[in-house]
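#lab-general

N.A. 3:47 PM
ok so I finally got the sequence cleaned up, no stray characters, all 129 residues accounted for. can someone with queue access submit it? mine expired

B.Y. 3:52 PM
send it over

N.A. 3:53 PM
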Amino acid sequence: MAAAAAGHHWSYSRGRSDLRLPDEQVRAYLRAFREALDSFEFGHVRSQTVFPELREMDLLASPLVGGSLGRYQIRTRFGVTVISVTRSSGTMIVNAPSDLTFEPGDTIRVIGLPDKIEELRSQLIAPKK
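B.Y. 4:20 PM
back already:
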């Protein structure tokens, strides 16, 4: 992985994909990362820092079924990233394209802050009727 400063943006390259981020966003992330590292002392967390979590959710009766990843804009709306989709056949799709259509029996793996994942779950995975 290569990283280089380009003006007020940082450009990260890994293989064929590039990610350009504003300088302040990179600095804010690095400050938060440093704070998280500094918060550990003898295996205990000193601060109330909330860390992202990785969770799996089954799309049994979800309104997502039949819609596309891009249609629901999960990352934009909830701040949660879909890492992979596993079909009922066992096929895993990593870095799913935005036109991927969710199917009955799919399981999604997401990463995000716990409260944001819960918001996604309550609104789109298992909404109250």
